[in-house]
Amino acid sequence: MANRREVGDSTEGLRIGVDVGGTFTDMVVASPNGSIDVFKVPSTPSKPDDAVMAAVEKAAEEFGMRQDAFLRSVSHFIHGTTIATNTALEGKGARVGLIVTDGFRDFLEIRRGIRENPWDHHAPFAPVLVPRYLRLPVKGRLDAQGSELQPLSVEDVAEAVRTFREEDVESFAICLMNAFLDGTHEREIAAELESEFPENYVTLSSKAAPILGEYERGSTAVMNSYVGPRTINYLRALETRLAQAGLASPLLLVQNNGGITSVEEVADRAVNLMLSGPAAAIGSLNHFAESIGKNSLISMEIGGTSCDVMLMNEGHVNYTDRLQIAGYDIVSPSVEVHTIGAGGGTIARVDEAGLLLLGPEGAGARPGPACYGFGGEHPTVTDAHAVLGRFVSGPYADGAITIDASRAHDAIDAHIASRLGVSVEEAAIGILRLMDQQLVLAVQKLSTERGNDPKLFDLVAGGGAGPLHVVNVARNLGCQRVYVPRISGAFCALGMLGSNCRHDNMRFFRGILGEVSPDDLVDGLLDLRMEVIDKLLREGFKEDEAIVQFTMDLRYVGQQWDIPVPVDLPIEHDRVRSTFETMHEKLFGHVQTRGAIEVKALRSSATGLMEKLMQPRGAQTAATPEPGETRRIWVDQKSGWMDVACYSGATLASGHAFEGPALIEEQTTTLLVGDGDHVTVDNAGNYLIMMADNDNA
Predict the structure, then answer these.
(1) Hydantoinase/oxoprolinase N-terminal domain: from which residue to which, for each copy (predicted)?
(2) Which pLDDT score, from 0 to 100, does residue 5 have?
């Protein structure tokens, strides 16, 4: 962590990343000289821009500058927001009207009929976002080749407009049969809606998700119109507020694909911000891979409400376009992030059968864990850490919170220990064991279940709570090394500063590999290339600065799911088949050597590279660090309670090395090291931990 700047120091070209989480809003300020500062303030869920401005004010004060002068020094202000996701989770989106093809009024409610858990026949689906009386049919039909069978009924559209006006509809979605082949009818309807309701949000399924599959296409369009007004209004208001406060550069946003873009470029695709924040982990992994000396990494970012897992295999992060948010299916190009409701504020409880359960409910920013003293009464993971000596009473996170361990003890006693007939310490241990098991399963979801052995990866801790769990999770997975960034509590905010500008596009394509002309495939991919390049040009990049990648969605004829397969130009069928079969073997364990392979879609992405963050290099020391104190702490199930050396991160420098058990208290996080594990502070000032003999390795 760099020292705070003195008045008069050069601050031109500052880069800021802001991650608004459920409990804290994190701001990272990177200076051209490589120094990095972190500012943490409590989130304000009802008005998240207040927390952003509070972080700006705090940073300006620490830099010894007026707020306007500080913001004028900023070259890039990058924001990750959960407002789109929270709007869906909280059910607080816009009142949406949906126009569909006559006879297909109920596809949104019928869904696909697939249950995520086939053994659970009772759990209800998420409520339909558009009630049936606002799902209005219009005549007009395209055939399976996109040719018009029946012209669009102008009268039906006019009737829908009258109904929407009477029902005070706030935004609109349009999803017509086979519109992914030709969006002419949808564009005609949109023109009429925009003429009648110029201030309202309109989404065309043919633009939002041009895919085969009316349900997924329509669900995406509806969700986009549901979260769009609130999300984009917030972002425009924040951009205006920052500009009025002195920011001269545009507000930039992290998209689901891990790339950044401007507010205007994403204004009509709010669903592209559903993973804004967690997707920025790709920027952090790229940044830290250089220091680690390895690019096969798994990040485990644990904040107050959730854990987000991302896997990078030899520098490559998987992408998908199928998301499920709050029970709704969405199509949006996205980095593959697996999220579970397990964070520092996750609430523990005992059910009617006397079983200890953890989550997914969380305490949030307010009232938060019981030990925060904000009025929370239910025990959380953070309270369990406090009971087991990992936190002591006093201020944390630069004074943003003050922990009272006695409150944690009382909450666990009242709600867990007394009901189970065990001691408070045993109850706290049970909470953490449940937490660690959930984290292990979350990592295995992206590793073992995808054909990747987690033992071959380094586990990277992120989030304020990640470093308290990462060593034990790594031990259970058989990982040999753990990497903990010194500012892991602002992992995603830092990742935003290491993110590139990226745009994706896709087009439906139908054909059998080997039968379809390679020239037709190349022509389709080059058309998509120009579309994504145009977006980069509007962002200020030059065409020769863009990195373009091509992908085709392939599957064996008769299969339900596609595999996105990277391809190079010119297209060679044998090479594409070989790549597909290698990926199919890894995912499913078999191939059909003579099976017909179907092409389902073409994709292109264009990336504009941002300037890399400088890697800090601290002066090396060979001295042996001295702990500030020794504290009695419960380490893990094998070691139990031990006398643990406790270090202040401010006293540790590059070159310092020692063995666990140890506790390291940093500005944004606390790191627990197991008995016998070896810690080295690397050149960048971060912690590399070599695991002691691992029985699971």
Answers:
(1) 15-195
(2) 45
Could you report the per-residue pLDDT of 132-157, keeping only the tens digit for each? Answer: 999 999 999 999 999 999 999 999 99
Check which CATH number belongs to the domain holding 580 and give it.
3.30.1490
Q: What residue spans of 352-509 are helical by DSSP H?
A: 381-387, 405-412, 418-420, 424-446, 466-477, 491-497
Q: How far apart are CA 567 and CA 575, in angstroms?
A: 9
pLDDT at 622: 79
- Shared domain for 112 and 222, answered yes or no, is yes
Neighbours of 492 (CB within 10 A): 30
Write the DSSP symbol of residue 176: -
Rounded Cα distance, 647 and 628, in Å: 5
Residue 565 has pLDDT above 80, yes or no: yes
Residue 481 lies in a domain: no
Percentage above 70 pLDDT, the chain: 97
**Residue 116 structural domain:** 92-230
- Pick from 543, 573, 608: which residue ends a domain? 608
Structure token digits, residue 332: 């949006």
DSSP conformation class of 65: S
Q: How far is 322 from 116, CA to CA, in rounded Å?
A: 14
Cβ-contact 477, 470 below 8 angstroms: no
Distance CA 483, CA 457 (A): 11
Q: Any idea what DSSP says for residue 392?
A: -
328, 322 contact by CB (below 8 A):
no
Are 42 and 99 part of one and the same domain?
A: no
Q: Could you write out the three-class secondary structure of 652-684?
A: CCCCCEEECCEEEECCCCEEEECCCCEEEECCC
Residue count of the chain: 697
Give residues with Cβ within 8 angstroms of 359, minimum separation 6. Answer: 340, 341, 342, 346, 347, 438
Specify whether the CB–CB gap between 226 and 96 falls below 8 A: yes
Residues 6+ apart with CB under 8 A from 309: 298, 299, 300, 301, 337, 338, 339, 442, 443, 445, 446
Q: Do 26 and 129 sit in the same domain of this protein?
A: no
For residues 508 and 539, state if they share a domain. Answer: yes
Q: Which residue has the tokens 């660690």?
A: 436
Q: In a 3-state reduction of DSSP, which class is residue 597? A: strand
Contacts of 293 (CB under 8 A, 6+ apart): none
CB-CB contact of 671 with 658 (8 Å) = no
Instruction: Provide the 3-class DSSP secondary structure of residue 440.
Output: helix
**Helices then strands, each counted (H, E), the chain:** 18, 35
Q: State the total domains in the chain.
A: 3
Separation of alpha carbons 575 and 676, rounded Å: 48
Structure tokens at 416: 């867990």
Q: Which residues contact 56 (CB under 8 A, 6 or more apart)?
A: 27, 67, 70, 71, 242, 245
Q: Tell me the β-bridge partners of 607.
A: 502, 547
For the stretch 677-680, contacts whose Cβ atoms lie closer than 8 Å and that sit 24 or more positions apart, written own/partner, are 677/471, 680/656
- Residue 219: both structure tokens together: 């669900």
Q: How far apart are CA 41 and CA 368, in angstroms?
A: 14
What pLDDT is stored for residue 6 in this prediction?
Answer: 43
Task: Return d(Cα 606, Cα 543) in angstroms, integer.
Answer: 10
Which amino acid is residue 303, in one-letter code?
G
Q: Which two tokens stand for residue 130?
A: 């558009």
**SS3 of residue 525 by DSSP:** helix
What mean pLDDT is predicted for residues 240-269?
95
Query: What pLDDT score does 347 carry?
Result: 95
pTM: 0.88
Q: Is 131 helix (H, G, I), strand (E, B) or coil?
A: coil
Whether residues 203 and 162 share a domain: the answer is yes
Q: How would you class 512 by CB atoms within 10 Å of its CB: exposed for 0-12, middle for 13-18, buried for 19 or more?
A: exposed
Token digits of residue 287: 């940044």
Tokens of 78: 């990058």
